[in-house]
Amino acid sequence: MLKVFTLISIILIIFILLALSMKGTDFSQIILGGLYYLPIIVYHKLGITGVTTGDSCSLFGSCDATLLGWILMALFWIALIFMVSTLLLVAIKHIKSAREQ
Questions:
Q1: Which pLDDT value is given to residue 35?
Q2: What is the pTM of this model?
Q3: What are phi and psi of 65, to 5 degrees?
Q4: At what angle do helices 67-100 and 2-21 cross, to 10 degrees?
Q5: Which residues pair with 52 in a beta bridge?
Q6: Where are the domains of the chain?
Q7: 3-class secondary structure, 1
Q8: How far apart are CA 45 and CA 51, in angstroms?
Q9: Tens place of pLDDT for every residue, the chain, 101 residues?
C-alpha cells in the first residue's frame, strides 16, 4: 500500500509543479486555486470557524488559510490519498482473486 500511496503523492506533486510552472494560465488557476483550496472551502462552507482569515471564500483561492486551515488541509489530502490507495489495492486484490478462480 505504501507504493501506491507514494505513487499518488508523486503524481499530485507533479501536477502542483506543472501548475506552478504555468503560473497565470487556466490550468494553474484550476490546480492551485480550485483543487488545492477545496478542503478549505468545504470546511468554510460547513461553518468550521478559524479555518480562514476572512468571511468569504471562493473556488479560486481568494481566502487565506490560518494555521488550523493548513493543518486540516494537509490532513484532508493525506486521508484522501490513503483512501484512494487502499481502494486501489482492494480492487487489484479482488481482480487477482477472481482471475485465479
A1: 67
A2: 0.64
A3: -85, 145
A4: 130
A5: 65
A6: 2-94
A7: coil
A8: 10
A9: 677 778 777 877 777 676 666 666 666 666 666 666 778 777 777 888 787 777 666 555 566 778 888 888 888 888 888 888 888 888 888 888 888 87
Distance of alpha carbon 64 from alpha carbon 80, whole angstroms: 22
Q: Enter the C-alpha cell of residue 54.
A: 476572512
Q: Are 95 and 10 in contact (CB under 8 A)?
A: no
Report d(CA 12, CA 83) in Å as an integer. 15
Q: Rounded CA gap, 7 and 15, in Å?
A: 13
What DSSP state is assigned to residue 29?
I
Beta strand segments in the chain, E: none
